TrEMBL record:
This is UDP-glucose 6-dehydrogenase. Its EC number is 1.1.1.22. InterPro entries: 6-PGluconate_DH-like_C_sf, NAD(P)-bd_dom_sf, UDP-Glc/GDP-Man, UDP-Glc/GDP-Man_DH_C, UDP-Glc/GDP-Man_DH_C_sf, UDP-Glc/GDP-Man_DH_dimer, UDP-Glc/GDP-Man_DH_N, UDPglc_DH_bac. Belongs to the UDP-glucose/GDP-mannose dehydrogenase family. NCBIfam families: NDP-sugDHase (TIGR03026). It comes from Roseibium salinum. Pathway: Nucleotide-sugar biosynthesis; UDP-alpha-D-glucuronate biosynthesis; UDP-alpha-D-glucuronate from UDP-alpha-D-glucose: step 1/1. Keywords: NAD, Oxidoreductase. Residues 317-418 form the UDP-glucose/GDP-mannose dehydrogenase C-terminal domain. It catalyses: UDP-alpha-D-glucose + 2 NAD(+) + H2O = UDP-alpha-D-glucuronate + 2 NADH + 3 H(+).
Amino acid sequence: MRVAMIGTGYVGLVSGTCFADFGHVVTCIDKDASKIDALNNGRIPIYEPGLQDLVAKNVAEERLFFRTDPKDAIREADAVFIAVGTPTRRGDGHADLSYVYAAAEEIAGLIDGFTVIVTKSTVPVGTGDEVEAIVRRTNPDADFAVVSNPEFLREGAAISDFKRPDRVIVGTESQRAVGVMQELYRPLFLNETPIIVTRRRTSELTKYAANAFLAVKITFINEIADLCEKVGANVQEVSRGIGLDNRIGSKFLHAGPGYGGSCFPKDTLALSRIAAEAGSNLKIVDSVIEVNAARKKKMADKVIDFMGGDVSGKTVALLGLAFKPNTDDMREAPSIDIVEKLQAAGARIRAYDPASMEEAGKYMKDVLFCDGPYHAIENADVVVIVTEWDQFRALDLDRVKSLLKTPKVVDLRNIYKPDYMKDRGFDYTSVGRTY
Ligand code: UDX
């Protein structure tokens, strides 16, 4: 099959590369010439384990191409994917669909023969209808079908999520389009991945519902963690105790500093707006948005309380800045709120992150970015673990203790055990664990 992928952001680049690796001929298209230039020279604009090698392999085997000019690729394509950004629109929280609609218009003028137009970007319910109307209006003779095929990949695990998904969702009323989609995903049938064929609107809503549900799960356990601290319980044991119930499931029950990233914050907000406009408010999702935003700020208070209520003139060493490990993505990262609030309270910040310090520089001021975890800890009054990178799980604790002014650790990801840290001579606090 021939695929054109519009947009070489996270989803576009990973999906395009993986489709090429399935054996299809894929052209990734982006208007940003410097990005395309970089990709053609083997430079990947995002940090994603395994992606660089997979791109290089498929480029070398001539199944993966990067172009600024969409003409040939779209004309020849069996399927054109729209994987452009849908950022939160300033002011009203809705998803900004201008890139999606611009792509639809461009595609309309270029398709030749039956073409499946697929939205991979997370888009509000009804966007597929609008894309269809735009294509029809722009090119009344076009032979096409519009499919919703949301992507569920996680940053840092994107390739395995794409190649071994829990399910694939295909939303369309066109049987012919279903045939094309089945052919595209054929390698997954061999793994018996369930493919759910449904209507377009249902598919569009499913993506938002999935992300919102996961955000609910995280926020629920975060609130239970707060309660654990008040009543003398341990949230990790509560998580395990409830997670082993198959109806609940053990994943996404890790208490922490609140969720961040490019998807959960944006998609919960967009879903809330969709629901409000449809006259069917989602009160649970609305609360989750509010509770999570407050939680990120509250994590700075936790540090301040731990330091006896005053951090002015104190040095705080932050380990981890990205919203989660194995990515350099800083969007909506809890570290941003934590740094801001600690600085406002008079603290000096030293920080280290294995991948995101360059990005972090765009989100925070007056932070001393350090060469490694021990450099960050040097002469600090307290260490705060914000992101659970593997390398922070195996710190040389004697060295940490000798470098710190006072042996204080705030572990916002629960990667160390309270008893163990106490035995090693640390004054230690974590999230939702009183023992
Ligand atoms: C998410 C969805 O998982 C993915 O299916 C969707 O396509 C895009 O959004 P991503 O944003 O890459 O993926 O990261 P994810 O691993 O889901 O983590 C999101 C946030 O939740 C992170 O800030 C993470 O630290 C936090 N989280 C996750 C928790 O605090 N506790 C958990 O138990 C799980």
